Hints:
Layout: E1 2-7, H1 14-26, E2 32-35, E3 40-45, H2 48-57, E4 63-66
Antiparallel strand pairs: 1-3, 1-4, 2-3
Amino acid sequence: MKTYQLSVPDMHCMHCVKTITKLLETAHVKDFTISLENKQIILSTDKIEKIIQSLSEAGYESTIETQ
Length: 67
């Protein structure tokens, strides 16, 4: 499992954080941190492409900042 830092510029409020949290939990990601202030997610997963696709489908474009 790798750790990734994602930039999520469309994350603006606590509702966004709750939506993304639910999405990550549904994808069985257990180790993640969401920073609304920095508009970032740090997570550990083997399925980063699936996570990015799920975020996109929910309206949150994201890019990998570091891996």
